[in-house]
Amino acid sequence: MTRTRFAPSPTGYLHIGGARTALYCWLEARRAGGQFILRIEDTDRERSTQAAIDAILEAMDWLGLSYDEGPIYQTQRLERYREVAEQMVAAGTAYYAYETRDELAAARDAALAAKEKPRYNGAYRDRNEPYRDDPNRVIRFKNPLGGTVVFEDKVKGRIEIANSELDDLVIFRADGYPTYNFAVVVDDLDMRITDVVRGDDHVNNTPRQINIYEALGAPVPHFAHLPMILDSEGAKLSKRTGAADVMQYRDEGYLPHALLNYLVRLGWSHGDQEIFSIEEMTRLFQLVDVNSSASRLDAAKLGWMNQQYLKSDDPAEVGKHLEWHLRQQGLDLAAGPAPADVVIALRDRVQTLKDMAERAAVWYRPLQTYDEAAVAKHLNAAAQAPLSEARARLTALAVWSADSVSAALHEAAEALGLGMGKVAQPLRVAITGTQVSPDISHTVYLAGQAQALQRIDAALTKIPA
């Protein structure tokens, strides 16, 4: 069974690159009918925080990347790491070393002076030192001295690194904590991970980990190292250029499945298709189809993609996401229209839910300000008859709906022998205080019957006698 894992370190929020890695892991497992595991690699005691863990879990939940097992915390597995490390010492594939920091620094300086690559000199490799209580005690892995490590990366292809480039890395420290390269091997082995999917900044770690797998006599998983995501200028992402908390994308008004669709296309394609449902992604995605070159963030494309979902998704479902943004605007949902109706009115005009909520505020708050230029242009003597006729017909409506409002306004225009624009523009200013709004039928309907009539009355008082 295919088993993948997403293993973030809780030293900060879940950023866009991590979200793509999580998505690719999730899709690979789901396509194969396998399992997806969430592991929290929280052994960095100085930088790991509960706030970061909470942020990661919140982002995974918002994105809908459900996991079959987890979250599993490395700090709850410390005894397991110690057990395996000591088993390796007993088997002769690891050993205790006791150098002080000064001794290690001196060896490093000597290597640099000799113009050699700084690396552990193997002083304790063959000494078979027993365990003793010493603050400098570590367990080091006995890395093979000759040969090469070769693996077929599902994204990058064949990778080969000579063991002479590696040294005897520390796998367990005196403080009772494992090092990264050791802990992930023990975790992936215990969790029966078949496919390790992660960023290509881990490529250099992989040969070390493969050697540890082989020393344990364990099967080596498949590896897939994903290329970087760059900003629009081709530079490394920064907070300013897109390396943002995934939840910031929610705050800016993107739908989670629109963001997933955008992320899946950052390095993977299926012909010329741009829009993929979750079902299509799950069925079509394969790691071997991921491009090995870096991808660039494109804010315009993300905005376009988000709008496609605003237009095509069930308004009631989009409305559930809009509710959060309306509340962020400090709006009382009970004081205005159903969010689904707002979606229908505005989805062709905006790219984000945040923009939609900001524009919708006019239907949830009393109208207190008017655009003076709009008032001067449209609330003049010529507006008296259209507003009065529209008011009378809207008052008579027994059923208040977008269709009934539309019919009433068209009847008003016909009764006065006017084009619809002559009725719509003064009404638009009356309802919104501006010259800009969606279709006039939706604009009036969303205000609600009582509020629409009240606003028309207020507009009539602004017409010069």
Automatic annotation (TrEMBL):
Its EC number is 6.1.1.17. GO terms for molecular function: glutamate-tRNA ligase activity. PROSITE patterns: AA_TRNA_LIGASE_I. Its main location: cytoplasm. It holds the Pfam family tRNA-synt_1c. Keywords: Aminoacyl-tRNA synthetase, ATP-binding, Cytoplasm, Ligase, Nucleotide-binding, Protein biosynthesis. It is found in: Cytoplasm. HAMAP family: Glu_tRNA_synth_type1. Belongs to the class-I aminoacyl-tRNA synthetase family. Glutamate--tRNA ligase type 1 subfamily. This is Glutamate--tRNA ligase. It comes from Lysobacter gummosus. The lineage of its organism: Bacteria, Pseudomonadati, Pseudomonadota, Gammaproteobacteria, Lysobacterales.
